[in-house]
Amino acid sequence: MPVNYATPAPEALFPVAGVRLGTAEAEIRKKNRRDLTLVELAPGSHAAGVFTQNRCCAAPVTVCREHLAAGSDIRALVINTGIANAATGEQGMAAARATCEAVAAQIGCAADEVLVFSTGVILEHLPVDRLIAGLPAAKADLNADHWHAAAHAIMTTDTVAKAASRRIELGGITVTITGISKGAGMIRPNMATMLGFVATDAGIAPELLPALARDAADQSFNCITIDGDTSTNDSFVVFATGASGLAVDAASPHWPALRAAVISVAQELAQAIVRDGEGATKFITVEVGAGGTAAECRKVAYAIGHSPLVKTAFFASDPNLGRILAAIGYAGIDDLDAAGVKVWLGSATEEVLVSENGGRAASYREEDGSRIMKNAEITVRVDLGRGSAEATVWTCDFSYDYVKINADYRS
Amino acid sequence: MPVNYATPAPEALFPVAGVRLGTAEAEIRKKNRRDLTLVELAPGSHAAGVFTQNRCCAAPVTVCREHLAAGSDIRALVINTGIANAATGEQGMAAARATCEAVAAQIGCAADEVLVFSTGVILEHLPVDRLIAGLPAAKADLNADHWHAAAHAIMTTDTVAKAASRRIELGGITVTITGISKGAGMIRPNMATMLGFVATDAGIAPELLPALARDAADQSFNCITIDGDTSTNDSFVVFATGASGLAVDAASPHWPALRAAVISVAQELAQAIVRDGEGATKFITVEVGAGGTAAECRKVAYAIGHSPLVKTAFFASDPNLGRILAAIGYAGIDDLDAAGVKVWLGSATEEVLVSENGGRAASYREEDGSRIMKNAEITVRVDLGRGSAEATVWTCDFSYDYVKINADYRS
User: Fold this and answer.
1) Closest partner residue to A56 among B86, B313, B325, by Cβ?
2) With a cut of 70, which residues of chain B have pLDDT below it?
3) Shortest CA distance to A238 belongs to which of A271, A199, A189?
């Protein structure tokens, strides 16, 4: 059960002018589920993406990087679930390229105008023939209103589909931003996540898109962790069709609002992944401030967010908060003065100081910690006492069900 | 249930001349258990230790570092379980110093000739009055044959006591090396572990001891991980009484054999901690070779050893081996060529090549992986194809019981 999250209704996912989506059953890994998604973009659409830093990255990630580097329009995305096409060698590269060529033939574009994404089991080969055989059905299903279906078709161990949508008025033109994401395990994105897609019908100058994709990822998918495992397939892509009639460049007065809306959709999608984290029962925000650098704040936030001991204490609603101090201590700041660190625990309605001066705060009472730990949404706030940098990480707790899901996955 | 490990019988733990041990019930955290251990060393004994790199290190760790730096003989060790005396500020430091003074008064030595160790819950104050009140009973219990009882008295979530012992003949003199350790969670020692003690009645030149402690830790406790959480209290101490009558310095022909025996005892104790890892059902050896540096081999070995996805797959006996490749890929070697990596999976009786050339090995069959994964002792061997450095890490799997133990601990 996700933590305070439900998939938006189909009508809450606004169509993006210039984008049509279709899904089909291709039997990539299992029968009787829609596991193939085709996204068609209007001519003149541009895209930018950020991808996993995992050195064993998947074949589709390599192909996406090549196609985005070519700088041409992007006319289609194709996404399969079931098999990740990662650690599949030359055969995997050939499968990803063949997929792009088959999509190009369907859509009527060049192969390097297609982006390809896979998610699922690593080290197994993609049944590329079945994937290609499913493309005509996906094409026949293309519809601007199929965001909801596409969000479902890209799921793996997700228990709910993730999507977010905004409409904003810019210079008298209504601009839409809609996105979908998936992921529940192997989540500690490093530069991107597996998988996130945000579309807008604003026209965004192509030179702005790479930085927008990176900034949006850095403020959303790059701030979440479920189990600390960086996937081989993480991909986050922003695409802009221009079909709304609004064109925006860096000098446009609409650029800040459009940029903020894209980032906001990305954050909602990223948080949805954590809320649906494998076995999650709580949503934890870790805010680290007063650090010397943002990098050291992130180190501390991730050390807390990754610690199995901290995460199991949250699961148990046990204010065994010394585990948080231990994680801060081993986060890798060599000259950290433990006596300067403060830690607070908070819920939506209160915050209590847990630790200061190298020990338990004099005002802290166990019953305060116990009360806050019972909430489904908890914030850990850390003051490093070293500067003014800050970082936030969103994570979830660690329950029996995480083990169950990952011991059973694939079976 | 530990993986292929049982506490040695009391008679298998050879007394070390010059060392007497006593335990007592001090009600540090719970009644009706021996939670206080006193170790008395003969005059002229020397010790060296390595301690946690956690910046929120416990008060007793700070005091041990000071006392070892003073360079005097070490005449006693005092160890309590139940409360870690970590994140306890000035009050914690005062408690650790008061403990040393009380022990010094009992033994008849200086306070800086006492080393103090605590293990248990962080962020709670040590009941130092009850600890000191327990010292006379521990002193009355002092006996050269009490290694077995001491191994039990230092346990926390351990399910079995850990101890190892060797007798070797050097130059016609029988030298004994006996050690004990504890730890089952919050185990990813960084320079040392919580807690390991190895004693010998050989006389070791004091200038050799620090390097011996460090080398032994690097080849034992620094090669294990259970959950990736580096404790606030990790301590590993080697002490030498000289009471056997054999004195060894760097030029001695006996030094290599003595050193090897000390390291061997440390390895047995470190592996015992992994075999008794919280919830462990399997003992996993991760050997990484052909690396550019030992440091990068360790990065890869720890990435595999820490991955919750890899560890739950071992628990499930599921050869979902792509998770190992994903961990290699995100281990942090920026210029790693995935196509040059090879991975084998092995048991005591066989080894199969799983992956090469960036994908699944042509010869690999799922049934081979399934058969090997059913073993209680499994080796993952990785060839990075970059050089000649290597590193080994020992770890365990990740089961429901890890979550249960850590959600319940403290309650």
Assistant:
1) B325
2) 188-194, 409-411
3) A199
Say if the Cβ atoms of B308 and A308 lie within 8 Å: yes
Rg, chain A, Cα only: 22
Q: Name the minimum distance, in Å, from the CA of A146 to any CA of chain B.
A: 32
ipTM of the complex: 0.77
- Measure the CA–CA gap between B44 and B56, rounded to whole angstroms: 33
Asked if the Cβ–Cβ distance from A229 to B89 is below 8 Å, we say no
Same-domain status, A112 and A212: yes
Q: For residues B232 and B289, state if they share a domain.
A: no
Q: Which backbone phi and psi does A254 adopt, to 5 degrees?
A: -90, -10
The pLDDT > 90 percentage for chain A reads 70
Instruction: Taking the CA atoms of B102, B163, B18 and B218 in sequence, report the sign of the dihedral they define.
Output: negative
Cβ-count burial B19-54 (b if 16+ within 10 Å, e if not): bbbbbbbbbbbeeebbbbbbbbbbeebbbbbbbbbb
Tell me whether residues A185 and B309 touch, CB distance under 8 A: yes
Q: Do B330 and A229 touch (CB under 8 A)?
A: yes
| pLDDT average, residue stretch A121-143 | 96
The pLDDT of residue B189 is 65
Whether A320 and A225 share a structural domain: no
Q: Would you call B402 and A402 a contact, using CB atoms and an 8 Å cutoff? A: no
Q: Specify whether A200 is located in the same domain as A316.
A: no
Same domain, A323 and A234: no
Please report residues of A whose CB lies closer than 8 A to that of B325. Answer: 56, 86-87, 122-123, 232
Q: Tell me the chain B residues in contact with residue A84 when contact means C-beta distances shorter than 8 Å.
A: 322
How many Cβ pairs closer than 8 A exist between chain A and B? 241
Alpha-carbon distance of A89 to A86, in angstroms, equals 8
The residue among A275, A298, A329 that closes a domain is A275
pTM of this structure? 0.82
Residues A246 and A296 in one domain: no
In a domain, B1, yes or no: no
Which tens digits make up the pLDDT trace of B74-123?
999 999 999 999 989 999 999 999 999 999 999 999 999 999 999 988 88
- CA dist B4 and B160 (Å) reads 11
**Confidence class for position A411, pLDDT limits 50, 70, 90:** very low
Which one of A275, A304, A339 terminates a domain? A275
Considering the domain architecture, whether residues B332 and B247 belong to the same structural domain is answered as no
Residues of A in contact with B313 (CB under 8 A): 406-407
Domain range for B320 is 283-408
Q: List the single residue in B312, B325, B336 with the smallest CB-CB distance to A123.
A: B325
**Residues A262-311 pLDDT 10s:** 999 999 988 988 898 888 999 999 999 999 999 999 999 999 999 988 99
Assign residue A306 the CATH number of its domain.
3.10.20.340
Q: How far apart are CA B8 and CA A408, in angstroms?
A: 36
Q: Which of A29, A123, A296, A409 to mutate to test the interface with B (most CBs of B within 10 A)?
A: A123
The answer to the question of residue B2 being in a domain is no
